[in-house]
Structures are given as C-alpha cells and as structure tokens.
Amino acid sequence: MKKLRKASSIVLCLTLSAALLAACGSNEDGGSATSTVEGVKKEGFPIVDKPLTLKVMSQDAGVADWNTMPVLQEMEKLSGIKLEYQLSPIDSFETKKNLVFASGDLPDMFYAADLKPAEQVTYGTQGILIPLEKYIDEGYAPNIKKILDENPDVRKSFTTPDGHMYALPFIDTAAVWYRGPMWYNGEFLKALNVEEPKTTEELYTYLKRVKEEDPNGNGQQDEIPLTSVKLDDLRMYFFGFWGMYNEGIYADKDGKVHYPYQEEGYKGYLTFMNRLWKEDLLDHETFSQTGDQKKAKGESNKLALFNDYHPYFTLGGEPSTKHPLMTPVKSEIADSPVYGKHPGISARGTFAITSSNPSPEATMRWIDYMYSYDGATLFNQGPEGLLWKFKDKENLVKEWLPVPGGGDREEYRGKITPNYGILTPGINDPDIAKGLRTEFDEWLDQQNQEKLVPIGKSPFPNVYLTNEEQSEATALLSDLDTYVKQMEAKFVTGQEPLENWDKYIAQIKKMGSDRIVELYQGAYDRWNTGQ
C-alpha cells in the first residue's frame, strides 16, 4: 500500500469535471450534444447559476466513499456542480472502461482515465470524445491555456493527427522519475567499505562481494545481491547502462527512433544479466516472486540492490538518507550511461469529455480549477485547517497540522481526497509544497540532480499514429512484446544460449520490429515539425 500511496503523492491534482445538465439539447443527426452557455461563468464561483448533477467515471483506490470525501464536498459547494460517481477498482478499470466505450452508455466525463493515445484517436475521430481546444481557447480554461501557451510542446504532444485535443495530461515540468529507480542498501556499502560502482564491471564485483562477505553480519550467506519481479521493475533503469533510454520505443539525441530489443545494447544487457544469474547474484526467484515477497526480503535486511519508489518502502523503517539512489553505471556501449527522464507530462490522457456531456463549457471551468494553485492544493492536501494551515499566507508557506485521530498522514489523506493512488489531471506546482518539504525530500532532489539529471532525456514524446498506423502497430507490438519478454527470461536464465542472438534478431525482424521503428519515426518526425 505504501507504494500506492507514494505514487499518488507525486500526482498533485484530481479532476472530476462537471457539465451543465440544464439548458441542453442534442443534434438532430445524433451527433454530440450542444449547449447554451447562458448560466456558465468564465470566472469565479459558482461555475453555474443552477445546481446540476453529472456522471463521472474514474478509478478508485478503495480507501473511502467518494460521496463523503471533504475535498469533493468542498468542490461541490464552490462550483454548484454535484457529481455522480461510476467507479471501478484500479485493477479492473481498463476492462470496465472498454465495456463502457463498447456499450455507448457513456458518462459525461472520464477522469483519471488513463486514456491511451490509440483510445484518444479512435474515440475522438468517432465522436465519442469531443475536442477540447475550442473551450480552452474561448476562455473557459484560463489556467490550462496559460500552461499550453507557455509550454507549446504540451499542446503539441496532446494534439492528435486530425488537429484536435481529446484529452488532458497531468503536467509536472520538474519531475525526474516516472517510475521507481534503483537503490543501494547503504548499510551494505558501508560494511564492505565500498564507494558506489561506476561501471558494470565494478557493479559485478560489488554484487559478488555482497554474496560472499556477509555484509548484514548475521554469519550466514543469505544476502541477495540483486532482486527483481520479472525484471519489470529494473529493466528501464538498467537499459540506460547500455545506452537505451526506454524499454519501449525511444528516440536518441539525434532524433533517431529505436526499438530497444534489437539493439546491440540489449545484447549487452542480456549478457550481463545472464552472468549475474549464473553466479547467483541475481535472485533466482526473480521470475516467480511477488512484490510483497521481495519486500519481505528487504525487511529481513537481505537485499543489496533493488527497485522501489523509495528505499524504505522495501527495507522498512522511516525515510532515511543512508540508502543512496543508484548511480547509473557505464558499460562497453559508447556514450553510456543514459537515463530516461520524466517527459514533464503524463504519456496518457487523464481527463476527457464525452459526447453525452450537455455543457463542455461548464466542464472545462471545473477541470481548469485543478490546473491552478488553489485547485491543486485542495485536491492534493485537502481543505485548509484539516491536514495543513498557512504559516505565511502572503508567501504561500504552509505547515502540517496533526493528523486527526493520529496515525499516518498519507493514509488519512486517502480518506479525504480521491487524488490517491491514481494518475489524475492537474499540475505539480512547486509552490504547493512550500513549507511542507522534509529533509528527505531535499536529499532526493540532490540525489536526482547529481546522478540522473545530467544524463537524462525524455525517451519519446507523446506522439500519435493515424488510425491505420495505430492498428498496424498494435497488432505487431502485441506479438513482439510477448515474444521478446519470453526470450528475455530465457536468455537471462540460460534456457536460450546467447549464441542464438542472430537467430533471435532474425525472428523479431520477421515479426515486424523494423516496421515498428518506421511507423514511430514517421510519427516522431511529424511531431518534431509540428505537422
């Protein structure tokens, strides 16, 4: 649960949009609903003159009833808009969302909806999702418009090939990670008197010493040098050691698109991981264990190197500066290491308005509040006086208040706001956390700036394929992804000898890997030229 909680804490705003039910009509041809804008204010609260109710579909972390959450109650008072919730647990949301699209029984808006580029293009061109840019540019979303004007790449990255924006992103221009990085157990480094490894060979040597020299000091050879869950948690970070920015499609510094699983760097990665496996330096339960089982090993002080959002999530205890962020290491590949940095926006749409919505104008006003300081504060931290108060309002400096009834602040936060455990629309404004940051937060920033930012680059912009291209790419990648993951496990564990690399490359090229590069190179070039 802690991973879930922390994942939500970097996401600062939840947007549940609303729209005007009164004064609406539909096109005679069955197209999207139209709206009179009478009664919808372009500024100030309430947004509408008459109370109204709208349906919103979202994911639910299952911590509390949204109908009783103080944040949503406060937003209803401010806006004059009441929401009816169509919620689905996080792990079944994709299935529910697909059923809703297929049935045509639509909510008025999707929120925290994880709308993939293909879904935006498909349902946008079909008229199920409506274009948003008109309402943004007509003054119903001044905060969003300001962000788009100041960051033209954000608008460009959420504009589909037909020229429309069908979804909104979460925006965090200061972000460095978009998944948990790798961490060293600092106590093991200290026990072995080792500086952080700088090359793959130094990393191998360190992991071997962990296995042989009892750094946890219990007199047993029970240390696990490196662990993982199916390699999914470490793959992207380790790919950077061999010059690859992403475990999916990525573009290098020259704008050339790559499919990593046919790169020479990938062969280097497989060779290294197989070496670790053969010498029992990579956990032999990697392909069978769960995240909870991995965590139990951390809490037993057996792990030397592992992935998580923060080290104490795996090792237990309180936030601490003694377990360092892993410095990416250099391999035999030229210009390594590299790091796939957070692109500053979510790669998928977090919010959309459907054709059932009777007033996109009112809805855009609702969502726009989440892209402001006040809206981001409300949905991330709750109403003033509950978990926090202003220490210096003029300079926007806050301080925490005691958690009502005691207990964990983050767990309590999950009871008052839906902005918990799901990627929501809005912004990460540094001012929101002014006065609330801890020594650990400052240390994380320093670690990022020293180790990741200098070698970091966003792997790939949020580009769109045409419908035809997307259909082709989806079909190709479905088979390719299954095959390369199966072969990765076989190469790493030695079931498939690396002498068969050329045979493997021939097979994935036969399955369309070069065509994938061609499709995404075209989409990247269109994005890059603004076409």
From TrEMBL:
Keywords associated with the record: Signal
InterPro entries noted in UniProt: Bact_solute-bd_prot1, SBP
Domain of life per record: Bacteria
One Pfam family matching this protein: SBP_bac_1
Signal sequence, renumbered to the chain: 1-22
Keyword Ligase applies: no
Protein's recorded name: Carbohydrate ABC transporter substrate-binding protein (CUT1 family)
Native source organism of the sequence: Paenibacillus pabuli
